Structures are given as structure tokens and as C-alpha cells.
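Anyone else keep sequences and C-alpha cells together like this?

Example one:
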Amino acid sequence: MVPRRSGHQIDSRLFLPFDKLLNKLDGIAWMAPFHNADLVHAFNRVPIGERKYVISFESHLPRRFGIARDNSYTDWLTREISSRHCRRIIALSHYARNQFIDQTKDACTAEALKAKLLVRHPNVLMGPDVDPLAAELAEGRMDELVITFVGSHFARKGGCVAVRLAQKALEENLPVRIQIVSSLTVGASVWTDPTSEAFFKPYLDLLDLPNVTRFDGLPNSAVRQLLGRSHFSFLPTFSDTFGYSIIEAMAEHTPSIATPVQAIPEFVMDGLNGLMLPLDVDELGHWVQPEGVKHGDAAYEAFFAEEIERLADHALAAIRPYIGAPEKLLPMRRAARLTAEKMFSPAVSGAFYDPFYERVAAEKPSSDPQNTPLDVSSPTISDIEDQLA
């Protein structure tokens, strides 16, 4: 979120997340007192009592998960981010911006909120300048196509699709290896999943296939190396506010196979820097599920299984042209890395945030906060398509 290199002093402060006291209070936090900051940059949670702050968010603001109806608490949250204390509202994606506008459209302060809303993508450290697979791909060496899935929520992020893809490739004797990095969290605790753990057993059993390699847990540096040595990362997710493993893969020169949910179409373009699998989404980018069906119902299990099967079939069709064709991967890997450099590098983040912090810190707290012409929103993949091509 914040720049990794800055001309300013950026202090990370301890805070009290009130959701540890009550889940429904996820939208607020109290910072440790006696700090001497010129400006506070909060993330997701409204910082109680701060004189001047900006707030970044990934999907919903204010956060009110588990609160179905407006009440004095949610009204106060909206008033707080509408106040002069909140100088800017920074969506981490254009999806988040659209979600925020839709969420606050009925607020009496909707226009004031929109006036200080902008988009800045997160930033990730860039991997090595040289693609670790460039030499062997240029020489035509690729014994098997290696695809890596990363995600703690196994089913939500597409792990079931990954193992079915492995099974289908094995049945056709295709040289495809699937690598899984996951704690295998599934079931009722995940908002997209069928609630019965028995539903997932056939998919978890596929982890024992000879062309599947599973890692229980790895440090981020090891995951990044694994992604860099893969031909594709794999995130056929049903719900992801951003898809951070995709941009980490891009930073390691690796394109991704993904679904067009939420923010992902902002940085993955099919055939250019990755492969996009079809998934039915609404105008905001949310996965469309059958109405009136609960996640514990047999009908939902059948629907979920059909979606897994359909995505696995599409994934198999999408990767076929790249099996045994290393020369086709090289331009896609170059475009993936260039996307990371243009959209998510620390250099891009710092170039925006350093002068931004200076401008906002200098504003008088009595002035009405709104964007200036210098508060430029992040581009989408369409904006830099010509540079990538």
C-alpha cells in the first residue's frame, strides 16, 4: 500500500483492531497514542480520533461485514470518512472504486466522498531483472509445463480446479505438473464454499496424483522463487478483491491463468500477459451464484462442482498451445514482467506517494478535502496495452 522507498519517514504504528473485541467492529481501529505524525495513512479501518488522515481500502469502505441494516454505528462511519479529517479515500483498484461508489450512492455526502476518491494499486518488490526461465525457453527446453497455485483458501481461489486440471492432463498423458501451495482451508469458514467438508474429499484426494506437488507452507521468498521457476501461476478464483499472487508472479516474470473477478481484469489481459478463463460475473465483477440457494444445499454443491469442472476444461484448452512450445511463452513472460514494472513497482508507488503526502500534509484541516489534478489514478492494463505489445 505505502511506498517501500520514500523520501519521508514512514512509521508503522501499533493499533487496536476492534474486531478482536467484536467481529462487527471490523471497520474501526485505535492507534497507539502520542505519535507525532503529520499525516496518518490508514488501511481498511477508520482510525478513531486522528486529526488528518488518508485511508486506503481493498473492497468495502466503511467495512460493515455482518451488519445488514444501517444504524447509528454505520451512520457514524460514513460521517467520519465524509469529514474533513479524512483527506483522501484511496481505492486499491478500479473495482474497489466502483464498489465504493455503489455502496455509498444513497449517502447524503455521496458527491463529497467521490470528490476525494482516487485509485492507486498496491506495490510489490520486483524479482531479478533477468527471467530465470529465459535461457532454457530460448533454447527450446521445457520437459513439462509447470503451473503453480498459491492460496490458503483452497476451493475459493481455485485449488479444486487446479487438481482437476492435473487429473485431466494425466488422463491424456500431457506433460503438465501442478504445484500447490496451500493450507487447504475449505468449508463453512470460507464465504464462497459449500459448507460440507465431505464435498471436498474427492478434490483433496487428487493431491496424491503423480503430477501434483503440494507444499503445506512456505515463506514468501520461497513462494516467489517457485513462481519464477513456473511457466504459469494459477488463480481461477471465485472471489478475490485483488489477486496478489498474480502480481507477485508478474514481478518474477511469470504470467497467470485467472478468472475475470473483481480487480483481476485491470492487470491481466488474455493472450498478452496471461490467460483468462470465462466466469459469469455481474457489473461490479462479483461471481454470479444461483439466487435463493444456501451454501449448505445440495443444489449449491452441484453448482459449485459444475463450475470447477467447466473451469478445468477451459484451463486445459487454454494451456494446450503452450505445451511443448516454449517459444510462445517468452513474449507473454516479458509482458507479465513489464506489467509489474509499469503498474506495481515500488518506483511507481514512490513517485506518486512522496509528493502526494507532501500536498495532503500541507492542507489546512479546515479546508474541504478533494482531489487535485496531481492526484492521478492508477492505469489499467488497457491503458498500457500498446507499451506491452
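And example two:
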Amino acid sequence: MSAELLINVTPSETRVALIENGSLQEVHIERQAKRGIVGNIYLGKVIRVLPGMQAAFVDINLDKAAFLHASDINSKLILKEETDQVPDIRSLVHEGQHIMVQVVKDPLGSKGARLTTDITIASRYLVLMPNSQHAGISLRIENPNERDRLKDIVTPYCDEQQGFIVRTAGEGADELDLQHDAEFLRRVWHKVLARKQRKQTNLPLYQDLSLSFRVLRDFVGINLERIRIDSNLTFQELTVFTEEFVPELTPLLEYYPGELPIFDLFSVEREIQRALHRKIELKSGGYLIIDQTEAMTTIDINTGAFVGHRNLADTIFSTNIEATQVIARQLRLRNLGGIIIVDFIDMHNDDHKRRVLHSLDMAMSKDKVKYSLHGFSALGLVEMTRQRTRESLEHVLCGECPLCTGRGHLKTVETVCFEVLREIVRVNRAHDADKFTVYASTAVSNSLVNDEYHNLAEVEVFIGKLIKVQAEPMYNQEQFDVVMM
């Protein structure tokens, strides 16, 4: 399988596309304005100790001093003794002291960042814990055999200077992937210590990687052919980064100066737009309907215009098989997670069901995100889950529709017209008016004076008053006002 990364960089946004066999499989997007400082490590200076609050203010070269509470200080490192109680803040830090801290909460309003001295650095599968010696496993990994397997792999990486925790995403990871992560984290930590020795206070000792760097870290071990970047500055920065931390990727980096925008290669822009649509066409003439809701994602398969086989059963089976490949790709591309319900076209042949389920499982096996797949339910639905790793593509690129407020549909013109007529009658009963003016959208106004003219006239006769209709082009289809004159 051939694979490559396309990295598109602008001052305000970075986008990364994973291409496999000439087809877009994943899109990652990061906007500069939404990047925080949580996870950044600083060599800060204590500027004030507050015994009454059991806290200290620390200067980490931001606009506001950061806040460090006594409970967030690893007293065992400072006092060199075992204790389960929180010592007095004055025994832990003093004014003018330089201390290595990590941000756990971004500045908010008038409040500065919240800090801790319990440093952790995360990678794709592991979390490095300096000054800890044990190997831990995420509690969300419940299978005892898997926990034992992971602990056996990670324990040799731990020593007196550092320990590791296997993240939930590490479930099922092979030994080579875990080894890559451990080696990467060790190199990062050595760089942090070197910067600390130089007393680097004007810049972070470590900051969470931006998207272009992070994807290179996370794609270590994946068989990439090349990595094309359309920013020369980013290309040079990534070259320095890979030479230090992931040298096996350096030969794959390639600056792309082409006149054609990099995301027009492999039709990436077009595929991103298609991934925002509910309806996905199948090559055979069938189609999928994908609906993402708060609770779950539902996928409905339809034969559409596909009549390519001699009997209906074979037509349905072929459409369902084709749909399994498209479903697996769309879940990755849209980054849909949580509960997913797939409504395949009904099949009465048990062998067909088994083969469709196997085809979906094989297609999903290419996905590096953890998933679980269940068989057909009594209602003929396939239930599955996919781990949530980041916001879905729709949530990153789209917001709630101001017209339908998230319903996904607008009331028809006919429905709004009837609402207007009912509102006129209601207002007439509650208030004494000589006549009424209706302000509504152009479509509703036109319908009231044309298609619904007889109904409007009947209301005029019923209330015995004149009704005038005024079009308001700025009104949306559901918006109207009934004004007493």
C-alpha cells in the first residue's frame, strides 16, 4: 500500500491529508487562534508566596503570573521524603526560586494559567513520567491479558529517572510502535533537561507540538513514501525536527513549490467538501445517507439506481459489499466516533450477512483508531463503536445553522403561511386593532397573496378587518411578524 502526507500551511491554519493508494483517507486541521498552552513546560520564577492561600504566583513569561497551589507541587521531589500530606507552601517554594512547571489550565479572563510540578509528556501511545519508576496501564484498558501484555512490553523501558503509562489508544499496539514512542519521549525529555540547564526562561522548555510536527510523531512506523509540504519555512523546521527526533522520516520530506495548490492534488479539496454532505454516491448507483447526531451516527444504505444483477438478492449483496469499503473510509475521513449504527439493505441469506460483516471488519482493520464491531441485531442493524480521538470534521468546519438551529430542516412555506393565519386570529382575539400588516420572507409573502389568497381572504372575512402583506427580503423562511395598525 502506497501512502503519503500532504501538509498545507497558512499563517492562520495548518491542514494535513493522508493519501493511501491515491485516495484521501484522513484530514487533520488545526487553527492557530485555537491553540492553547496546556501541556507546555516552563522554567518559571516564583515571584510571590501566599501562605494564606497555600499557593504561589510564578512568572512564566506570559502577560499574567501563573498560579501554583501547594497540592500541585510534588513535595517528594523537593523535600526528598515520603509524605501523603500537603506541606506548607513556605517549605516548598520561596520567592526568587526557579522551578520547572507545566501548564494544566489555560489563562482565563483575569486569571493566569494553572500550574503543576508533576511533569508528563504524551505521545501517541505512551505518557512519559519523569522521576517515576513504574509502568502504568490506562484503567480504560480492561482486558487483563492485554494489560499484562502491555506491562511486559513497557516495564523494560522504565528506570530510576522515568516511568511510562500506556494510554487508552495503546490497546492493541504492537511492540515496535510502543518502542518508537518510548524512544521519541526519551529524546524529548533529554532536550527539556538540556534547556533547563541553560536556564531558558524566555521560551518554553517544551510545548505541545503543532499539527505538522504532531502528525510526523504519530505516523512513525507507518509505511509512508513521501511527505510533501507547501511551506518552505515549515519544510525546514520539520527537517530539523525529524533529524533530531525521527531521523527515519527525514529522507521522505519534500518541499512542494507547485503552482497547483497542494490540496488540489488527489482532489483533496473536493473530497473534504463531499465529506460534509449527508449523501455519498456509490459507483454502482447506490448511495449512503450519513447522519451525525449528539448521541450516535447512523448510516443508511440504499440501492438507488443499481440493477446490475439478475436477481434482487445479488443486487442487494453487491451494494452492501461496496458500501462496507465506503463506510470505513468515511468514518476515518470524517473522524466519526462513538456509537455507529449501520442499516444495511435487508438480506435474508445468512452467508451474505456473514460476508458483509467480514468485509466491513477487513475494511475497518486499516483504521489505526480503535473500533469494535458487532453482528447483525434482531432488527438487521449492525452496531459498532469507534474511539473518539478528536473533533469530527463536521464539528471543526461547521457550526449550527442559524435558520434551523440544528434541526437540519426548515418549515415549508405552506406551514409558515398557516402559522401566520393562526397568529392573526389569535392577536385579533387578544387585542383591538383596525387592521393588520404581515411582514414575512419573500417566499411566504408571495404564497400568502397567491397560493393562499383564498385562505387569507377567509380570515379577513372572519375577523372583519383588512390584512396587508409586506415582503421582507432579510427575513428567513420561518420568520414573520403580525403588526396591529
